[in-house]
Design a protein that fits this description.
The chain has 778 residues and is of the alpha/beta class. It contains 25 helices and 21 strands.
Length: 778
């Protein structure tokens, strides 16, 4: 159109004699190409007889009205003719391509020459979601998951960072290559891991009041908790159930002082790191030590393992990536415990608990003893423990394989295949419970290469290392690419312990993915649930109250969500009333899991694979990202309602929740506006689609508090993080102020109220879009 006007203007001498020089720079997907168009090198002299090099030309004043109507009519006619010619050509081409039965059409009917052949481009097959989902299901039916898993179960006792662990990394690289993924690569981290000292094993014993040894408590030589400080501790024994905050609150009400004591807690309900951290906090940093025990009564071999670092990643490079032996400040994570911790067997725990003094408590475990809270034994003897763990620097490797998207290859979803390099066994059933989804990655590639599916976005399959040490491999990688990932990665689906039962379903993670999960599980047809009891419970209005549980810090998705702000989801099939007893122990084998699930193991495996596969396809197929940002409006409203129960209490302090409520309202209005913008946008327009999706993709990371330091408080998410900046921390402080209105607690509340308000307001402003679109009266 512009060229047409220019031509007509020159013909009728109605346009200015000057053209501007401009530079058109296009930078998309890393393309830094630059185009410069020079229409004229002439410089025009203005009326002031000075050279004018600006883009604003001085137009000769002349009467153009006599030619104006003719120019407009001519331009319209040219435009109409061009449009009709283009439409006719397009319609003719589409008519030819619609005939897919004969790609080579004879032109003899048109030219009379029977020898002349004209090649007609066949129509490209378009696969819609209704085509892809059945295709995935059919392919999964023929996949032999159990054979793939069983062939990899022979190896065990492979330490993270060992030579054998590197061989497994190389094997995973080759396996990714055989799948036909677009690109495969590895990254290496030098991290500090911890193992038991083989020459000086950990010990637990009962000693007399004069500290002379009275009786040894047998524990296996390889029994330990990673990142426990070494040292010796002696004291009276206190029983604290699961070591949760409410358990210690109960002890406090019973006037049981844990300071200077050794605390014994049972495994389950919460991670070992959280148990030890609670002991340390409640004891004011003076509690001697803590046990983590297992109460299943199935033998001495069922001793739990894990890490007591109350965080993730290498605790000696907090907030920094451990790349290339980079030198960092001499700091360590605040989540490292200040007290030694040790695991013991069920048999040893029963022995200790049978000697306890104090009032009886209704915290029953699996033993036929009278459970008493202590402190101490009836005969006055004490418990002594000695921890001798050794820190070792190791090189660990993560392996990645990407199935590149065709429209937005720089936007991706993560599907982890395995937490590699565990502290005890790298190829134990935990490897199985991450489904060994090589068959799934192969199927995803086959759908692209064979069946013609072209995903809009990329899928990254990954195998992490150092999983049992607190997601070390995953966290170090996140720390290295945090800024990039927040603008590129839009989902993470975690499969740690996805197969633990066959009756109940548990979900944790970002509300952004709840709607997609709910929709997908209703569509999965599985023999696992013939009466649809699981699916019907998900479809009910209160399914979140039944199925959604808080995400634990030892969940593989936790650093993605709480540290990086990437929408993440974990789910697990389990048995609530009959939990799988071997998880995290040396007895956690494929044979044990098969015996536990009996004939349903294959069905559970296939169901999980189809769930993940369908979610991955939907997240990479649709124009709009399948992230339900409106769910956070509901979560914020629930929080506001809880806060308002303290309204009178804050009024007495001279505080108000007006601004917090206003920020919540702005977020809700911003979510509504985004929905309206989406409905009014042509999502076939790549640029317009990208603008909408960028706003959706930023929702999660906007809930990372900008006022918390990633080094000191790495889990900055106000919903799922850990620290005084979170919503839960503010509610806890409000509860404390009911009984203890110290100036410190009041000042902390003022700070929490202000910073949380502005974090939510910032999330609302970002969701709105451009700055000039923000319309609030905050």
């Amino acid at each position: 159109m512009s060229q047409t006007l220019l031509t007509l203007g020159n013909l009728f001498d109605s346009m200015p004699k000057k053209y501007t020089r401009f530079s058109l720079t296009r930078q998309m997907d890393g393309d830094g190409s630059e185009v410069e168009m020079k229409l004229s090198e002439d410089e025009e002299i203005g009326e002031n007889a000075m050279c004018n090099n600006t883009q604003t030309s001085v137009v000769k004043t002349r009467d153009n009205r006599r030619n104006f109507c003719f120019i407009v009519i001519a331009a319209l006619l040219l435009f109409l003719v061009g449009f009709l010619i283009g439409y006719a050509a397009f319609h003719s081409r589409m008519a030819r391509e619609s005939d897919t039965s004969c790609p080579i059409a004879s032109a003899a009917s048109q030219t009379g020459d029977a020898d002349e052949q004209v090649y007609v481009q066949p129509v490209e097959r378009v696969l819609y979601l209704n085509d892809l989902i059945p295709m995935l299901s059919e392919n999964l039916k023929s996949s032999r998951f159990m054979d793939t898993i069983r062939s990899k179960m022979a190896r065990n006792n492979i330490e993270a960072g060992s030579e054998e662990d590197y061989k497994l990394c190389t094997e995973m690289h080759h396996r990714f290559s055989s799948c036909g993924l677009s690109k495969i690569w590895e990254d290496r981290h030098y991290v500090r891991l911890q193992f038991p000292d083989k020459n000086n094993t950990n010990k637990v014993m009962i000693v007399n009041t004069n500290l002379s040894k009275a009786e040894d408590i047998d524990i296996p030589s390889d029994s330990y908790l990673a990142y426990s400080p070494s040292g010796t501790a002696t004291g009276k024994l206190v029983y604290a159930n699961y070591g949760r905050k409410e358990d210690f609150e109960y002890l406090e009400k019973q006037n049981v002082n844990v300071t200077g004591c050794i605390v014994i807690v049972r495994a389950g309900r919460n991670p070992a790191a959280e148990k030890v951290n609670n002991v340390w906090v409640v004891g004011g940093g003076k509690v001697t030590s803590a046990f983590d025990i297992l109460f299943y009564g199935l033998g001495d071999s069922l001793i739990p393992s894990g890490s007591v670092h109350f965080g993730t990643g290498d605790p000696y490079t907090p907030g920094f990536p451990s790349f290339n032996r980079t030198q960092f400040p001499p700091v360590k994570s605040s989540g490292l415990p200040g007290i030694p911790a040790q695991t013991i067997s069920a048999k040893a725990a029963e022995k200790l608990l049978s000697l306890m003094d104090g009032a009886e408590v209704n915290w029953k475990g699996g033993f036929s003893v009278n459970y008493r809270m202590g402190p101490g034994f009836r005969d006055g003897r004490l418990v002594k423990m000695e921890v001798n763990n050794v820190d070792t620097e190791r090189a660990i490797y993560n392996v990645f394989g990407v199935l590149k998207g065709f429209v937005e290859p720089d936007i991706w979803i993560y599907v982890p295949l395995k937490q590699n390099g565990n502290s005890k066994q790298s190829w134990q059933p935990q490897d199985f419970k991450t489904i060994r989804l090589n068959p799934l990655s192969t199927l995803e590639v086959e759908i692209v290469t064979t069946d013609g599916y072209k995903p809009r976005r990329s899928i990254v399959f990954v195998s992490w290392s150092g999983g049992d040490f607190g997601a070390v491999g995953a966290t170090e990688w996140l720390e290295g690419y945090l800024t990039t990932l927040q603008s590129k990665a839009f989902a993470f689906i975690n499969l740690d312990a996805a197969v633990l039962g066959d009756k109940d379903l548990r979900v944790s993670g970002s509300p952004l993915l709840y709607s997609l999960f709910e929709k997908t599980i209703k569509e999965v047809k599985s023999p696992l649930d013939p009466d649809n009891s699981i699916y019907n419970s998900i479809g009910s209005e209160n399914w979140e109250a039944k199925a959604v549980v808080p995400m634990r810090m030892d969940d593989g998705a936790y650093p993605f969500l709480a540290f990086s702000g990437i929408p993440s989801l974990s789910f697990s099939f389990t048995r609530t009333d009959d939990p799988y007893p071997y998880l995290g122990t040396k007895e956690d084998t494929l044979e044990r899991l098969q015996a536990f699930l009996k004939p349903k193991l294959e069905d559970v495996t296939r169901t999980v694979a189809e769930l993940v596969g369908q979610m991955a396809i939907q997240l990479t197929h649709d124009h709009e990202l399948n992230l339900d940002y409106a769910r956070y409006s509901t979560k914020l409203l629930q929080f506001i309602r809880k806060v308002f129960s303290y309204k009178e209490q804050l009024k007495n302090m001279g505080l108000t929740f007006q601004w917090l409520s206003s920020a919540n309202g702005d977020f809700k209005r911003a979510a509504t506006k985004l929905t309206m913008d989406y409905s009014g946008t042509d999502m076939e327009d790549k640029m317009a689609s990208r603008v909408i999706n960028d706003r959706i993709m930023k929702v999660e990371c906007n809930f990372l508090s900008p006022y918390a330091s990633p080094e000191e408080t790495p889990f900055r998410h106000i919903f799922f993080g850990s620290g005084p900046h979170t919503l839960n921390a503010m509610l806890e402080n409000l509860d404390v102020l009911k009984h203890n209105s110290t100036i410190e607690n009041v000042n902390l509340l003022k700070k929490q109220l202000a910073l949380l308000t502005w974090t939510i307001q910032g999330a609302a402003n970002a969701l709105t879009g451009d700055v000039w679109e923000i319309d609030n009266e905050f």
